[in-house]
Amino acid sequence: MRCVIARYPFELTKDGVLASMKGVAPEVVTGESVTVGRHRYPVKQVGQVVTRQDRRDFTSGEVVRAMTRLGFTCHEHPETTPVGGPTPLHTASALLGGIVPPEV
């Protein structure tokens, strides 16, 4: 399938994307993402690997459109919100005497 990403034409296939992403460890998903094989990747990571362009050169929307047309499942938001890590408020209060405010 021919698509344009960052004003450059690409001939992408589903098998080609799967092959490009094979062995690539998924980064933490904080925004839009795409499921490639058994992994969920940020769309910017997939775009960078597939096009070999800098992530600043294209939008996530361009990659989402291309991946959707190829039959991949795209997601708007992260599946879960990371929990368990200290918040900036907890870190600051620990530095100021160990008083941790209750969760709101």
Q: Would you give an account of this structure?
A:
This protein is of the alpha+beta class and 104 residues long. It has one domain. The chain has four helices and five strands, in the order ββαββααβα. Strands 4-3-5 form a three-stranded antiparallel beta sheet. The chain has a two-stranded antiparallel sheet with strand order 1-2. The longest helix has 11 residues, at 60-70.
Give a short summary of the structure.
35% of the residues lie in helices and 18% in strands. The protein has helices at residues 14-21, 43-51, 60-70, 88-95; strands at residues 2-5, 8-11, 33-36, 39-42, 73-75.
End-to-end span in angstroms? 49 Å
The rounded Rg comes to 18 Å
H/I helix tally = 4
Mean pLDDT: 85
Structural class: alpha+beta
In the sheet with the most strands, the strands line up as 4-3-5
Our count of domains comes out at 1
Question: Would you identify the regions where 5 or more consecutive residues have pLDDT less than 50?
Answer: none
Keywords, separated by commas or semicolons:
104 residues, alpha+beta, two-stranded antiparallel ribbon, elongated
